[in-house]
Automatic annotation (TrEMBL), chain A:
InterPro entries: Nus1/NgBR, UPP_synth-like_sf. The keyword Magnesium applies. The lineage of its organism: Eukaryota, Viridiplantae, Streptophyta, Embryophyta, Tracheophyta. This is ditrans,polycis-polyprenyl diphosphate synthase [(2E,6E)-farnesyldiphosphate specific]. It comes from Populus alba x Populus x berolinensis. Belongs to the UPP synthase family. Its cofactor is Mg(2+). Keywords: Endoplasmic reticulum, Magnesium, Membrane, Transferase, Transmembrane, Transmembrane helix. It catalyses: n isopentenyl diphosphate + (2E,6E)-farnesyl diphosphate = a di-trans,poly-cis-polyprenyl diphosphate + n diphosphate. SUPFAM superfamilies: Undecaprenyl diphosphate synthase (SSF64005). GO terms for molecular function: ditrans,polycis-polyprenyl diphosphate synthase [(2E,6E)-farnesyl diphosphate specific] activity. It comes from the Eukaryota. GO terms for cellular component: dehydrodolichyl diphosphate synthase complex; endoplasmic reticulum membrane. Its EC number is 2.5.1.87. It is found in: Endoplasmic reticulum membrane.
Automatic annotation (TrEMBL), chain B:
Its EC number is 2.5.1.-. Belongs to the UPP synthase family. GO terms for cellular component: endoplasmic reticulum. The lineage of its organism: Eukaryota, Viridiplantae, Streptophyta, Embryophyta, Tracheophyta. It comes from Populus alba x Populus x berolinensis. This is Alkyl transferase. Keywords: Transferase. GO terms for biological process: polyprenol biosynthetic process.
């Protein structure tokens, strides 16, 4: 009997000690991860300092035209730092971003719409700006404010618009009533319900983690989602880098095709050695060259 | 002899590897483990190009990586795994590529049914998520067969998104919930057809005695039917009011408003049994104001409603887009995009994702509680 008790006690202690060690290892692994992110953070700070001081040449000119619509998602707890938000918007204006959407889950930014607009020159609400305005004034910036209610609830409202149509068709006994449920009709219905904003090309997340936090699902099908870190450490350099990266990914693709076309013309004539190589090799070579150019 | 030694060596490495993995998972499970992983398997074609493989070999390499990822997930204690196997957009690719992919998918689906497959080993229940009507018949039949065969598995769940896009899912969910709502207010529907007929009769023979009598006859019926509809409406009004009550605190106003409208409709019903058109128009307005469809309705008709929202979405090959995958479900979900192409994904990518999840766990928990 005593022996059994003893064995059980020993087992219990072994388990306790094992757990303790595992926990210790877990914590130290997370400590390492934290160090890693700290290092990454320091590297980012240095890089963004270099960018904003203009030392890195390639970041000096950005083709903002590629970025037709930008979305910024801000963690609601941070969104109350209005001065930071305004700072961010002024930078974006300086870079030359024309149309953007500001999103936070709880709608903190929506509530302080007026004060944000008052602090910015040449900014109007997206809903108020008509096309004539944006064409006339190149410096103009249109702002859209969104919150979680523009996401799923908006889809429900759009759904109701469709439901009304459906009901009408059901009453008139139309056979094709099931066919009204298409993506095009849904977009139309959302517009009718007042949620017809465009799809952003790029979405910048200011918050602790990379997550879109409930940004209207209907509008982020092919949006690039980039994490920028918390709002309190918002930096001009990192903003420029993110936008630059987006525009060059688009650009690279265009230039790449051009090079393929060009080299395709003299690929088989100029260099006899190349003949033996496969096409894939040439593609990779070109990517490598492009990489070096940038 | 050499061959023999080689196999023994690889066996040794294999068991060493699995031991190492077990230790790592033991350490990881000291923290919170995500319940639901989602994968976008991007970069198979690029991998084939990079490794100079023939077309289609990239996808096969991708499949074997998928199998090991699934194994790791279930060993780690993840209950739900979702994979993006085939998007509706992918149908737009070259026909022979689509055909090859479909053949591969069919082959692998049939492989799931075999005795020694992963599905049986881990007790996985398989769901095929998406607009299955778009698939070719053999694939659809095979998919349904697998779903049926694994109904009794309860340990883990594998959701395979095939012919899926998130926007299509939303539209289909709206469609289904509209259908449901229509069935709910079916009495109103039949009444409408009655009144429609009455109108017709009315229009043709306004002075005809027979016409009038018909109208009266139907009028009585429509009244009854309207009463049944009234009760459905009342329920909806009550629900609507309750919601506004919780959200904005304008209870009195809400109740008052809906009462007003209800009164209006009733008085109209009372006065206008003969011209049944006007109440119809009015009640349509009421329908719009009440918003019959709710987020809950739509959500319950989503394909993905069989599983909780994902905790991590992993997209390989460094792409930062979601490409129309689980847009609705990822409101509070970590998005992780390692640079590796899908066939290059290894255990440590998964481990890193879990570590990242654990770092942000408390933040996401807080977010989930808020909304």
């Amino acid at each position: 009997m005593d022996l059994k008790d003893e064995v059980q006690r020993v087992r219990f202690w072994i388990k306790q000690i094992g757990n303790f060690w595992l926990r210790l290892v877990w914590h130290s692994v997370h400590l390492l991860v934290r160090f890693w992110y700290l290092g990454v953070g320091v590297a980012n700070v240095i890089e963004s300092y270099l960018i904003s001081s203009g030392l890195l040449k390639r970041y000096r000119s950005i083709d903002v035209g590629k970025l037709r619509y930008l979305a910024i998602v801000i963690e609601s707890d941070d969104a109350c730092r209005i001065s930071k938000v305004i700072q961010l918007l002024q930078w974006l204006q300086a870079i030359g971003v024309k149309h953007l959407c500001l999103y936070d889950t709880e709608g903190v930014l929506k509530k302080s719409k007026e004060s944000i607009l008052a602090k910015l020159k040449n900014a109007t609400l997206f809903e108020e700006a008509d096309e004539r305005d944006s064409l006339l004034d190149q410096k103009h910036m249109t702002l859209e404010f969104a919150s979680i209610s523009d996401g799923k609830e908006a889809v429900a409202k759009g759904g109701n618009v469709l439901f009304m149509k459906y009901l009408k068709m059901a009453n008139s006994g139309a056979e094709q009533k099931e066919q009204i449920f298409t993506e095009a009709n849904m977009t139309e219905a959302l517009r009718a319900a007042g949620f017809g904003g465009p799809e952003p090309d790029l979405l910048l997340v200011y918050g602790p983690a990379r997550c879109h936090l409930g940004f209207p699902a209907w509008r982020i099908r092919y949006t690039e989602i980039v994490h920028m870190g918390p709002l309190k450490s918002v930096r001009y350099g990192s903003l420029v880098k993110a936008i630059y990266k987006f525009t060059t990914v688009q650009q690279k693709y265009g230039k790449f095709l051009f090079r393929v076309w060009q080299s395709g013309k003299n690929m088989w004539t100029s260099d006899p050695l190349k003949k033996t190589k496969t096409r894939v090799d040439d593609f990779l070579l070109m990517i490598w060259q492009l990489w070096n150019v940038y | 002899m050499d061959k023999h030694r080689g196999s023994r060596l690889s066996e040794l490495f294999g068991s060493l590897g699995s031991f190492f993995r077990k230790c790592m998972f033991c350490i990881l499970s000291m923290g919170p483990i995500p319940k639901h992983f989602a994968f976008i398997m991007d970069g198979n074609r690029r991998y084939a190009k990079k490794e100079k493989l023939e077309e289609g070999a990239g996808h096969r390499a991708g499949f074997s990586v998928l199998m090991s990822m699934l194994k790791y997930c279930y060993e780690l204690g993840v209950t739900y795994v979702t994979i993006y196997a085939f998007s509706i957009e992918n149908f737009k690719r070259k026909p022979d590529e689509v055909q090859n992919l479909m053949d591969l998918i069919l082959e692998k689906i049939e492989g799931l049914l075999k005795e020694e497959s992963l599905v049986n080993k881990y007790g996985i229940r398989v769901y095929f998520i998406g607009n299955l009507k778009l698939l070719s018949k053999p694939v659809r039949v095979a998919a349904e067969k697998v779903m049926k065969a694994t109904t009794n598995n309860t340990k883990c769940v594998l959701l395979i998104c095939i012919a899926y896009t998130s926007c299509d899912e939303i539209v289909q969910a709206v469609h289904e919930s509209c259908k449901n709502k229509l069935e709910e207010i079916q009495p109103c529907n039949s009444h409408r057809s009655f009144s429609g007929r009455v109108e017709e009769v009315d229009g043709k023979s306004i002075d005809d005695d027979i016409g009038h009598s018909v109208q009266e006859l139907f009028g009585v019926q429509t009244n009854e039917l309207r009463a049944t509809r009234a009760s459905t409406f009342c329920n909806d009004v009550a629900e609507g009011v309750e919601r506004t009550d919780k959200k904005s605190g304008v209870v009195g106003h809400g109740v008052h408003g809906s009462c007003d409208k209800w009164g209006e409709v009733q008085s109209l019903e009372a006065s206008g049994t003969r011209d049944g058109v006007i109440p119809n128009v009015k009640s349509e307005k009421l329908l719009v104001d009440l918003s019959i469809l709710k987020v809950v309705d739509i959500e319950s008709h989503m394909y993905m409603s069989v599983a909780p929202n994902p905790d991590i979405v992993i997209r390989s090959s460094g792409e930062t887009r979601l490409s129309n995958f689980l847009l609705w479900q990822t409101s509070n979900c970590l998005l992780y995009s390692p640079n590796a192409l899908w066939p290059d994904m290894r255990l440590w990518h998964l481990v890193w994702a879990v570590l990242d999840f654990q770092r942000n766990y408390s933040y996401f928990e807080k977010k989930k509680k808020q909304f």
